[in-house]
Predict the structure.
Amino acid sequence: MVEDMLEPSKERIMPTAPFDFDMTARFATRGLGRHAGDVYESGVYSKLLDDGDSLPLIRISSTGAVDAPKLEVEVMPTNDGDTAAANRTARSLVGADDDVTGFYGMAERDAVLSSLVREFRGLHIPQSATVFEALVKSILSQQISSQVARVLRDGLVDAFGTTRVIDGAEWIAFPRPDAVAAASVESWRAVKLSKRKVAYITEIARAAASGELDLEALKTATASEATEALIALKGVGAWTANWLLIQALGQPDGFPHGDLALQRAMGNLAGDGQRMTADEALDYSERWSPYRSHATTYLFAAIRQPGGP
DNA sequence: GGCCAGGTTCGCT
DNA sequence: AGCGAACATGGC
C-alpha cells in the first residue's frame, strides 16, 4: 500500500477527429470493474498504472465534442518524473491518436461496415497500457466466455496487483511480470485458472521479467515480425497474436479470424446466418485490408450491443 | 446436468 | 496436414 500527497498534473490533449470519448471509453472498459484497476464512471476514465517504480493514477475526461475533441488528463503521481510517461499511456489508452478517416473511406462503401461506421462514428481503437497486460488478458480469455474471463482476470489482479489508496478509495494496478513470475502455487489457487494457462502465463511473465523477452519492443516491429515472435510463445496462437496487433501494438490490419463471436457476427451480417468458418471469415475480410483492425473493433462494438449480431 | 463460451497444444492417424 | 481430446469455470 502506498499513500501520498503529491500534487496532480493536468494536461490537455487534442485527439484526432472524429473522436467519441464516451463511446471509446465504454468500449475500452467494457466488463472491467474497479478490481481491474480500470473504471469509467461519471465521464471519467481512471486507471492505476504500475511501472515498477511508481503507481500513477490516470484520470481522463472529455471537454470537447466528437468533431472537436479535447481531453483533459490528470495524473496523480507517487513521485516526481513519472507524469510524462503516464500522459503518453493515457493518450494511447483511449486511442487519442488513432485516425479513423482512412477506414471510413473504405467502410462507407462496404455492405457490412457502412451501417457500423455510422452507428459507432468516432470510436477509436483503445490500446492496452502494456503489451504484457494485453497478452495475459488474451491468454486467459482463450476459449471461454467473456463473463468467465472477467472472473479470472479479477482474480489475477486481486492476487498479484499492487494496491494504492487515494482519498480513501482503493485502486489495483494490473500486475507486473515480476509479480506474476514470483507467484506461488498456493497464491495461484485463488485465481481459478487452468494449470495449463498458469504455466503459459508464468513462463511469459518470467521471460519478460528477466529481460529475455522484450514485449514493448514489439510495438516498433513489423506486423509479421511481431506475429512470429508472439506465436513462438507457448500459449499464443493466431487468435491471440491478432488481438495483440489490434489492442496493444497499434497495427492497422489485425484480424482474429479464429474468433467464434466474430465468425458468428460475420455469418449474420455478410452470410446466410450460419457462423462462418475461420477460413471463410479470413477470405471475406480481405476486402477490408489494410483496415482490418478497425473493422474488427467496429464489429465487436456491434457484437457487444444488446441484440447485436 | 450437459454443452458451449471472444483457443491452444499435444498426441494420434 | 488434419483431427480429437484436454483444459477450468460460469451461465443457460
User: Anything to note?
Assistant: The first strand of chain A starts at residue 9 and ends at 13.
